[in-house]
Amino acid sequence: MKILVDADTCPVSDEIMRVSQLYKINTYFVATTNRLFLITGESIYYQWHFVDQSKYSTDIFIANNIDKGDIIITQNYQLAMLALAKKGIVMTYRGRIIESDNIDFLLYKRNVYPKTSQSKRPIISQQMDVEDRILFKNKLIELINSL
């Protein structure tokens, strides 16, 4: 088992690094080259892979490297669908598990919801606070312990 992270917009990279070190799980953070940033710390358990800037480079790299039982951390539902087809386990940045029985609804909701009136859309904060990060970390640990 390994962890593959769609790292372009991942707000919980630090939490994933800590958990990968704690459980000694090889973890691969995949991002496009236009996201180059300072990477602090070193570990034998996580690596950064930078791919070209084309639209689906990150998704293709991750999809091509999924093995059965791998954990994929992403907010991208198309990538989640590919990961599920390859028997991967998908978790969002907020700790939600995406499974075969809910991916169709999530894809449908994402495609229909933006078409509704802007005035009817609830305001949802996308910022991750300390509690969100702790929740994510606990959910990731819970998932790893269940495998």
Automatic annotation (TrEMBL):
InterPro entries: UPF0178. It holds the Pfam family DUF188. PANTHER family: UPF0178 PROTEIN YAII. Belongs to the UPF0178 family. This is Uncharacterized protein.
